[in-house]
Amino acid sequence: MSRLQRREWLEEYREKALEKTPVAFEIEKEKLQDFILRMAGFLEESNIIADFGCNSSDFWPLMKDMNLRVVGVSCNKAVKQTKGIRIMNIGLSDFNLLGIFEGFVAVGILQRLHPELWSRTLLKIMRSVKTSGVGLIVTGVSEEEEAKSRHDSLKKSGFPVVVGEYIDGNGNYNFKPLKSWYDQWLKNAGFYIFREEVTKDLVYTLVRK
Fold first, then answer.
1. pLDDT tens digits, residue range 134-187?
2. Is the dihedral of CA 58, 182, 103, 174 positive or negative?
3. For residue 105, which of 47, 147, 176, 187 has the smallest C-alpha distance?
4. Which listed residue, 51, 53, 86, 127, has the most CB atoms within 10 A of its CB?
């Protein structure tokens, strides 16, 4: 493969990545439920919670039972319409909401985005949340030695990648940043981490604006 300039390579995968559903990874449903319940403990009845990417739709009934109003945002997969749930089918690159939600869940949506888009996306999510709002982010992170080894291999093959990027066996784009990068992006977006757990290559993070 001829050496590509990074901008050209990103353009090649950008539309494909943004149109696809989030990259599949194993999420422990019990752990996800536990973190959703912990987050809900900081919310009040009738508060509005956004599910960015709609990958927590299995827990919408649970959130409704807690008298939370759920809005599915940027649902990049077929989500069964649930009574009482509003669906906003706008892309991550298009939404520009200000102070709408008291809480949010973002499971698996970041991993399919190029690193150049992480800061912008996190900032948009932050702006959509009211002051003192809370949220749950679940995404993949890379172990440094393994990520750098994979990066070096891909660079030798002509791919203009950064550490954490790779294309899986099905041709799907993935980006799992180093944990330190992830923490810094959250901080730069204006989020404060108040509880976190790393399991294998996944991080479950509760944040407050």
1. 999 999 999 999 889 988 988 888 778 889 988 777 777 789 999 999 999 999
2. negative
3. 47
4. 51
